[in-house]
Design goal:
The protein contains seven helices and eleven strands. With about 260 residues, the protein is α+β, with helices and mostly antiparallel strands. The chain is globular.
Length: about 260
């Protein structure tokens, strides 16, 4: 049983000196107590089940729990009027990743091409927002928290797995794969990772109209790139695309907005 969030391990906590933020009736904080962690795990369970039909092999009741939670910094957005948790993101520093035995992404991708980046590479994931609050404010708050921790820790790179549901027969994943191939073609010498359990991209040939999911669209607007073919996650029934962001390539507007410059 976790005590007072070893999820905020000593290695992670000593790097956090950030007061949080509040905008438009939403407040962003870092989880400090067991109750906070359990609340955001319930949100993850509910949202991922509803959005993707996810199956959680290590769920504890109605909570999405995995072995990386104890090593992560967990951001949480609360509705100020009710106090309920409506958004979350977690961040794994390179120091904590060494203690945890690696990054979550290494269960899906061979990260050998990113070896030189690891000392400055944070991993983000388990991003979810309640359906009532997907109007932009919550995700911008979460990204501001990520940016501040990266700035304080001197981290340059951010890695994540962006999940695309396959419940539509792969139409959305096909659109993302088309975008990914175009990005990789424009930067053929950039780092590219290989999926350990590849999703058969030959199936991603749907011509049905589809939009790039808002989270991936947002990453690309920040200046991130898709750096490889998708992995297949059977538990979430998703195609997972590797996303890599170099803060030095972050769009100037967002550098100012997040207080990096």
């Amino acid at each position: 049983m976790l005590a007072l969030v070893p999820s905020l391990s000593a290695e992670s906590m000593k790097r956090i000196d950030w007061p949080g933020a509040e905008v438009g009736g939403l407040a962003l904080t870092v989880a400090h107590a067991q109750a906070d962690l359990e609340a955001l795990q319930r949100l993850r369970f509910r949202v991922f089940t509803e959005d993707m039909g996810a199956v959680f092999p290590h769920a504890v009741g109605d909570r999405d729990v995995d072995r990386f939670d104890p090593w992560c910094v967990h951001f949480m957005v609360r509705e100020t009027g009710t106090g309920r948790v409506v958004g979350t993101y977690r961040l794994l520093t390179p120091e904590a990743a060494r203690q945890a035995g690696g990054y979550y992404s290494e269960s899906e991708f061979d990260l050998a091409p990113l070896a030189a980046l690891r000392p400055q590479l944070v991993e983000v994931g388990r991003s979810c927002i309640d359906t009532e609050f997907r109007h932009g404010t919550a995700i911008m708050l979460l990204w501001s928290g990520l940016a501040q921790v990266m700035k304080q820790g001197g981290y340059r790179y951010m890695l994540g797995c962006a999940s695309v549901s396959l419940r539509d027969g792969g139409a959305t994943a096909s659109e993302v794969w088309r975008r990914a191939r175009a990005l990789m073609a424009r930067n053929p010498h950039g780092p590219q990772v290989q999926p350990l359990h590849p999703y058969p991209v030959d199936r991603l040939d749907s011509t049905l109209p589809a939009r790039v999911p808002p989270l991936i669209k947002g990453y690309l607007a920040l200046g991130a790139t898709i750096c490889g073919a998708p992995a297949w996650d059977p538990d979430f029934h998703t195609a997972d695309f590797p996303i890599l962001l170099d803060l030095e390539q972050l769009d100037a507007r967002y550098r100012r907005h997040f207080g990096i410059d």
